[in-house]
Amino acid sequence: MRKAKPKKRYILPDPKFRDIMVTKFVNNLMYEGKKTVAYEIFYGALEIVEKRLNENGLEAFKRALANVTPAVEVKSRRVGGSNFQVPTEVRPDRKLSLGMKWMIKYSRLRGEKTMVDRLAAEIVAASKGEGASVKKKDDTHRMAEANKAFSHFRF
After folding, report:
1. Which of 2, 100, 107, 135 is the Cys-Cys partner for 122 at CB 3.0 to 4.6 Å?
2. pTM for this predicted structure
3. Residue 89: partners with Cβ closer than 8 Å, 6 or more residues away
4. How would DSSP label each residue in 68-97?
5. What pLDDT sits at residue 148?
6. Kind plus residue range of the DSSP H or E element containing 142
7. How far apart are the C-alpha atoms of 126 and 132, rounded to whole Å?
8. Which domains does the chain possess?
């Protein structure tokens, strides 16, 4: 076990919107330290979202992220020789990171030609409450609901 908890690292807001959440998203989106490329992808996707929805791209992104963030998840817990899927509440910082990772994962799996188009399409779909990342959240909630009987095994 660790002696001391590691210090929380604070990240700087992004250059265009001055928003920390955007920087976190771009950090997750980034490959091989190419942060400038990741920013170009993100900002390009927001421009496409603005054209499609005729509203502020950042607002649509935040609404999409809110639609994707899970409230509960299941964690595997070993009790008496058998494993149980125990539903647990998700910490606020983990909620955000899970939502971001799911949005990025399912936008990468989409069929559009460029990553900018894929991310824009996923943001539009998630802001409307549809798409693969919202389905993942619903599946997670459904799994937690199905295993509610084992919630007394929570630590």
Report:
1. 107
2. 0.90
3. 71, 72
4. H--SEEEEEEEETTEEEEEEEEPPHHHHHH
5. 75
6. helix 132-146
7. 8
8. 20-153 (1.10.455.10)
Separation of alpha carbons 112 and 56, rounded Å:
23
Which pLDDT score is estimated for 155?
62
Query: What CA–CA distance (Å, rounded) separates 10 from 123?
Result: 26
Residue with tokens 């496409």: 48
Instruction: Measure the CA–CA gap between 62 and 102, rounded to whole angstroms.
Output: 14
Predicted confidence at residue 147, as pLDDT, reads 83
Which backbone phi and psi does 5 adopt, to 5 degrees? Answer: -70, 140
Return the DSSP state at 152: G
Question: What residues in the chain have per-residue pLDDT under 70?
Answer: 154-155
Nearest to 68 by CA among 93, 92, 94, 103: 103
